[in-house]
## 1
Amino acid sequence: MYTNFFYALRREGVPVSITEWMTLMEALSIGLAESSLSGFYYLARAVLVKSESHFDPYDLAFQKYFQGIENPKQLLEQVSQWLENPLPPKMFSEEERNELLSKLGFPDWESLKTALEERMQKQDGPHHGGNTWIGTGGTSQFGHSGFHPGGVRIGGESYGQSAVKVASERNYRDYRTDKTIGVRQFEVALRRLRQFSTRLDGVKDQLDLDDTIDETCKNAGRLKLVWTRPRKNSVKVIVLMDVGGSMTPYANICSQSFSAVHKSSHFKALKFYYFHNCIYDLLYLDASNNPSKAVKTEDILRSLSSDYKVVLIGDAAMAPSELMMSNGNIFWDLSNEEPGITWLQRISKKFPYNVWLNPLPEKYWEQVHGYQTLKIVRDIFPMFELTLEGLDRAIKKLMVRK
Amino acid sequence: MTNPLHYQGTDDYIVSNDLQNSVNISVALKRPLLIKGEPGTGKTGLAESIARSLGLSLIIWNIKSTTKAQDGLYVYDTVQRLYDSQFGEQNVSNIKQYIKLGKLGEAFESTERVVLLIDEIDKADLEFPNDLLWELDVMNFYIPETGETITTKHRPIVIITSNAEKELPDAFLRRCIFHYIDFPDQTMMKEIVHVHFPDLENQLLTEALKAFYWLRTISGLQKKPSTSELLDWIQALTIGGIEPVKLSQEIPFLGALLKKNQDFDLTLRQLHTRGTENSSRAKRGW
């Protein structure tokens, strides 16, 4: 029953659940696919896919699974001759359909294709109203104006466009979420930090008017005050951003995300610090990395509570010495007693809610210049691509202790 | 079709084949239909069209950021009851008269089948859709104050719209039929405009659409003009008595299409480059 299509979808990353799959089966059994492939395409998409960002993976899976369903030209021509002078379309009642369904079940495409080819070879002329040969108005798997739960419609009425062709156009490519993000999307994604914010901590210091009135009324008019926690966002965020050097090509993305974070000023606290390539004793207050405008990393580790969520943005690609050696700082005039990795480990230990966003696409992480350090950093911080999907996953990660 | 409830669109609402399909699928499967799409693609209009096409009445539940799921079911007006108990002559022992059904409750109570539109569900709290899961699934709810259970007499056709401001919970999505309304292409847009302006000159329409779709191709626009802006603009063009030929050279009343300063600047720059390529197009006004 197309079960492999289910797995094909999941392989492409469409999160299809069993519930939805059963709904699709129910829909097929009441004939909503109108026994055509394009009918099936739209039906399955409406039932199984719940976000336009998954339309493209859906198209891909569909294409792969139903590939080759467009029969070779000559075959089609021959068959369409047999299909001339059809019987009037036969409407099958529900019972008839169900009976057929239980009798025939849903074949898979593989056997259907083989069967079609086989029958093509054996059949010598038109057959109408039967249940085996290619013809019209019957219950054979092949033909049109008839019904078969898993049949191939050949010729006749259709939606005018082949489903596989629709799928192969990939009209929804732009809605994929693994593309790099824009400012607005960044803001929307960051807004999720608010939604996940817990209302469990904080003082009950706000009068809950509705509940007070309710309770007072239930209390026969004697005043009974109800207090509640204010609906404020309790999320506190530290953003640590790599600037300059190998990050220059990503400056644009970073400035976008910077403005996004600035706009979404709904956090309880938002701290912004800069570093260059790796973090050492000092964190800078602006993008110029000027040591006169800097704070001690140690102070930050000490003064900020560990419920701060840390977002690091950087490519984590650097010379191994910058990460592993003391005095490895890329600024010659600045020495550091402890290697950068020690500082990174401290940050990760102090702030258990942390993620590293990397503007480099994930598929290059293994090969990019500086991949050795990238791998080490990845062991310390959970690393995500700086795309909408990556950010999504990162924010989910930020909400749980790793 | 054996199903008597078969939606085919209405004269004043142009519907694509696959949207029509999705509506019929959701009706046949008795699942809510979740509609997403760019602003101005007629998400809300769809419910009105369905109601008209099937001859059913429409109940609209507008969601705001403060809306709670409970509001849709019923509200127990305790204040009125307290007030009545102190000053009124009414008998307050009948709690039933203080229970006011919300929009969802209304849809359940209705003696005829209705279309229920839950508009912009993503505006409410994250938990909101989850709070409605049970009610939308079994189509009944219990009022503890009166011990009553409100059950649907006829399962309403539920249409839910979302602007994708928030992600909806997975459990909720699993129960819905989903449809994403694409931005209409030129041919379809022509039909849509025609519905609103039946007397519009063909030439003006063609030129206007050309300019409109050119505008949408400019990359980097913060807010692309949508259908409703196009309709406003065309109205402005007809009132202003603009000659269709002029539209290939300039875009008058640009403010009807673009709503952001940056977009304005960007477009003017683009118009300029388009103009230098073709020196006769240098003149413009808005």
## 2
Amino acid sequence: MSELERQLRQPYDATIHAGVPQAALDALAARAEREGLVEVAYGQADSPFGPLTVAATERGLVLLAYPEVELEGVLERLARTISPRVLEAPRRIDPVRRELDEYFERRRREFDLELDWRLVRGGFATAVLEATAAIPYGETLTYREVAGRAGSPKAFRAAGNGLGSNPIPIVVPCHRVLASGGGLGGYTGGLDRKRTLLDLERGAAA
Amino acid sequence: MSLPPFQALLDAHGAVVHRFLVAAVGPVDADDCFQETWIAALRAYDDLDHAENLRGWLLRIAQRKAIDSHRSAARRALPAERLPEPAAPPPEPVDGEPRLWARVRALPEKQRAAVFLRTVAGLPYAEVAVALDCSRDAARRNVHDGLQRLRKELIGA
């Protein structure tokens, strides 16, 4: 390598380039949203469990992931299933953030958010999650009851699987579905969280 | 074929594209060109029929936006009827950047881009060729000629 090439390579970063300015990235995201180029917008929302990843399409909220879920995998899933035009862009998820804040502060009992079911596989799983979305705040159903509302009372195991792969937990309240006999049942995000959410709603209802 | 999420491209290649544009158009206009580049890329992304060498593809768009920016700067500076050719910007350093970079910026378009991509970004010639939409030999020649010219100017200075 010549001296000139060494010079070209070295002083550059240190002196005038410290990465892409945040303002440039913000302006880009804002313009991409304004021009309707973002198929899937995502960002973070605060919660008592830590920062949640939330993603929304033009149709509505499509995904909510707990903090331990690896972002890279989440984005790849969105790219594969919906569109590769996935961008971190805050505007579209602002309402989601706001409603989640209110929910965790017990100032909101129902979410007024449109939902996009495209990450749900299969008609029965969709029916199960729609039935779950209709369970009122502070109330619970059993797996069997949810399966019944989805059209197949005997398919409670399949209902459990559908709930386990709920792409929009909290907002689609799969924590409100319990084992018959009073047990908690399962929860993909961990039973502690299921208990926390149920307690939060009970406390507010009381 | 499946394309990676667009944000992954921005995370992986945003810095090199921005650095390329700072070298090409200077720190002042780089942010605008950066935005134009990524908006154009996002617009075209769905229709892309390959997922290979996306960095080269992005840098090619950036190179086009840099050329647009030089042309409109030249139009602003001079009456259009008198000078059809874009004028090279004067090699004045901006904001305390090393004078060398002002000289790089004053190189002919292809040489400037080739020198940057090869030396600063460290791209292999095959990828430089993709970014400049030319053959590998032409990429090699542009790097060589650009460096030659810089060397001569530096000796002369």
